[in-house]
Design a protein that fits this description.
By secondary structure, the chain is α+β, with helices and mostly antiparallel strands. It has four helices and four strands. It has helices spanning 3-7, 28-34, 57-62, 68-77; strands at residues 14-19, 22-27, 38-46, 49-56.
């Protein structure tokens, strides 16, 4: 999922970002500057803070194509999956 889409939904609080094995605290404004470089791999919460698992886009592209379940979703619905659909 695109980081920009998630950031539009968050308030201006600090967000815990997990990149690889490292956790870092960032503001939403700081993350907006990085939104073209990362994709959201997972979303969670802990003690009232949002936790975003991020993956560098370059690593994702070099790792190959999208996972099969994403390809199936795009083929079926014509769009990439959105975790907020049906909420």
């Amino acid at each position: 999922m695109k980081l920009k889409e998630i950031l539009c939904l968050l308030r201006d609080d600090d967000v815990i970002c997990v990149i690889g094995q490292e956790e870092e605290m960032h503001s939403v404004d700081q993350l907006k500057l990085l939104s073209d470089e990362y994709s959201v791999d997972s979303i969670g919460s802990k003690d009232g803070k949002v936790i975003l698992g991020l993956q560098e886009l370059r690593k994702m592209e070099s790792a190959g194509e999208r996972p099969d379940w994403i390809k199936e979703h795009v083929a079926r619905y014509g769009t990439e999956p959105n975790m907020f659909d049906g909420a």
